[in-house]
Amino acid sequence: xxxxxxxxxxxxxxxxxxxxxxxxSRKAEAANFxxxxxxxxxxxxxxxxxxxxxxxxxxxxxKKIYANITFVDIAGLVKGASxxxxxGNKFLSHIREVDAIxxxxxxxxxxxxxxxxxxxxxxxxxxxxxxxxxxxxISLIQKKLEKSKKKLLSSKEVEILEKKLNLLNKGxxxxxxxxxxxxxxxxxxxxxxxxxxxxxxxxxxxLAKGNDYSNKVIExxxxxxVVIICADIEDQIMNLDKSEQVxxxxxxxxxxxxxxxxxxxxxxxxxxETFFTSGPLESRAWTVKKNTLAPKAASVIHTDFEKNxxxxxxxxxxxxxxxxxxxKCKENGRMRIEGKDYIVKDGDVLFFRVNS
Length: 356
Fold this sequence. Notes:
Elements: E1 3-8, H1 15-23, E2 41-47, H2 50-59, E3 63-65, E4 67-73, H3 88-95, E5 100-107, H4 122-148, H5 155-169, H6 179-187, E6 196-202, H7 212-220, E7 225-229, H8 231-237, H9 242-252, H10 258-269, E8 272-278, E9 282-289, H11 294-299, H12 304-307, E10 309-316, H13 317-323, H14 326-331, E11 336-338, E12 348-354
Parallel strand pairs: 1-4, 1-5, 3-9, 5-6, 6-7
Antiparallel strand pairs: 2-4, 8-9, 10-11, 10-12
């Protein structure tokens, strides 16, 4: 599995420019007027991993398949979206389909690019998005609670919904500490509990250290994951070849592209990690949640592998690099035989044995 991130924000904050840069495409029209993006644009990006490159070379694999991340460029939100203003209903329905939300906020001034609220205030913009999502969730919960009168919900589910409704009415959109509650709330399509990354879109001069706008975002959201990028710079980078990219990034003082920052932050946010399979036919990266048991990890390759699981032969990728093959690792005692209770680790090279 990969993961899907929705790029959301007010109109004219740079969503389509960022999407085009991240996906190295021109799928999303970027223009200086609201609702330029009506239907969502979708782009799938490979998660480059030099560990997979090494495994492919050592195994002399015919195919190399990276893990991937899907970006969705969602129509701009305006105040009143929860009541259907602008493209509100479409906007909210598209958010429900993603694993995590990139809250893109404008952190630059420009006379050429209009702002929907006339002035640039990224904190107010983020609060507008937060408020509309909360209002949408309040409406959804109220509708669900109406069903409780028809005995369509258990008493426990009603209790969870009433508790969450009370918090949302106070403006509190934080996740519950109870995993079971969060699973239920997620299953009914609540938006406010989706993991989120705040992305500050700054001008080129502010890329290295941020600016007053991005500093206010960091100050007001101390517990959030905040990434600073310049969508225009990202767009320029993706139009260059590899060697030109390196030179350009050195010139503007960039250590990582925005894409790499978002992938790293997204993996951390969603508690994801990577294991590998490698052989003559194919070397491949697979994405699973941290603390995933071996049979469940096997199921991402094929659903039948979980119920037919026998064992996993596991090698740390660093040992694979050191000895050069699975056979050499086995000869040197670096291949482990793991059972159903084994927790997969990031960087494992796994060979699953299952009943046929």
